[in-house]
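quick one before i forget lol
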Amino acid sequence: MGESNLADDVLAEVVAMLRDNPIDFTQPPESIRPAFEALFAGIPIPENVHFEAANVGGVHGIWCRPPDAPSARAIIYLHGGGYVIGSSAAYAALAGALALQTGLSVFVPEYRLAPEHPYPAGPDDVFAVYKGLADQGNTPVAVVGDSAGGGLVMTLLLQIRSAGMTQPGSAVLWSPWLNLHCDSLSYAANRAIDPTLTPEGLFACAAHYVGAQVPDDPLLRPLEADLSGLAPLLVQVGSVEVLLDDSTALATKAANAGVHTRLEVYPKMPHVFQAFGGMLSDGAKALKHSADFILAAAAGGA
């Protein structure tokens, strides 16, 4: 069997697993949280990474520390889950893989979730973490986020600019969810082929997070905001995702605003395929590209 056929078989296995274990975001968040945690519990924990509970800026979370990581350089990882599910523990394996790839410590904050804690609770927690590190003289090397965590990355960058603080060295967004209206073309065009997300589920999450109407707030509408002066961006997305247009629109808008931007669209890859880097070669490649981008930006040239 050729490498291409083998890769297709593995991808088909991953897609089948996602379709057989769907997370129905139209259901009450408290009812789907256990299934989401169980799905991510299947990701192997990287060896040689030390995990420790910690508090940064008043926010609890988990440090993922690879061997010989420098103490004054760190990455913040913002997990996904539609702003309503997910945890630092569930994403420790993925953040640990990023820590190994970069050789840097990664902090995964346990930011507050809707509907118990709607906007702006989550972004407030994330900003507190960033400020907490900066106040210690440790402006993060990078901020990384997947799905809703990618939306939090963009909110954070805009908050940092408004506060007159130093931007991180770079920002990496994996399959970011940026359009809370859920109304761009890919939401409909890819609905049948995206094995993970549906427009209806995302719309339900948005209602939990911000209410029935998306407020006229640039922190919630990064695709309409002024993006000038933000950190260099790497955006990765799979071609079958309902969120495809969120990534392509962000990359275009950021580049037009003068932000150093790189967009990578991976054929046939599902939502946050980096989480399956142990199975999917494109997942492993995307994770390495992310690490290379972070390290190059930290060295002065993304």
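fyi The CA atoms of residues 274 and 286 lie 6 Å apart.
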